[in-house]
Structures are given as structure tokens and as C-alpha cells.
Amino acid sequence: MVDALRALDAELGDKPYLAGEAFGFADLAVVPFAAWLPGYARLGEFRLEEVCPRLAAWAERCGERESVAKNVHPPDKVWEFITYLKDKYGDK
């Protein structure tokens, strides 16, 4: 998982969004997973800001957009769902 996150981090480079200067279709396709990033980091026992600083900044930037904030679950709710799944199915 960390390798995939690092690939996204590298793809961002110095751009604020995946395809350049403006929020676009690439961001729209990936942004639903942004709420899962803190959970991935917590489960993987790493700090997203240290491992993938550009991706962490991108997720923050996207989360500040009204359209994203209204339509993507907050990370704490995603964490509740992750722990529910872990409790129900274990670490299989």
C-alpha cells in the first residue's frame, strides 16, 4: 500500500493537483480515497505527512473544497468503519 501511495505522491510532483494547477477529473477519481489515507497510515503505522508529504497536502487541499467536503466521508467516520470491519472480519 505504501508503494502505491508513494507513486501518487511522486505523480503530484510540484503540482497542486494530479493533472496540474486546477482540480480536475484525475482528482475527482482519486479524492474519495483521501478520507481513507489517515486510516491506511494508522494501520500501517506510518505518518502520511512524512512518507507522502505531497499526497497529504493534496488531500488537505481537496478536503477544503466545498464539493469534496460535502460528498466525502470525514476520516474519523472512515476509521469507525475500518474498526467495524476489523472487529467483524478480523485481520484476514
TrEMBL record:
SUPFAM superfamilies: GST C-terminal domain-like. Residues 1-85 form the GST C-terminal domain. PROSITE patterns: GST_CTER. It comes from the Eukaryota. One of its GO terms (molecular function) is glutathione transferase activity. Pfam families: GST_C_2. GO terms for biological process: glutathione metabolic process. This is GST C-terminal domain-containing protein. It comes from Panicum virgatum (Blackwell switchgrass). The lineage of its organism: Eukaryota, Viridiplantae, Streptophyta, Embryophyta, Tracheophyta.
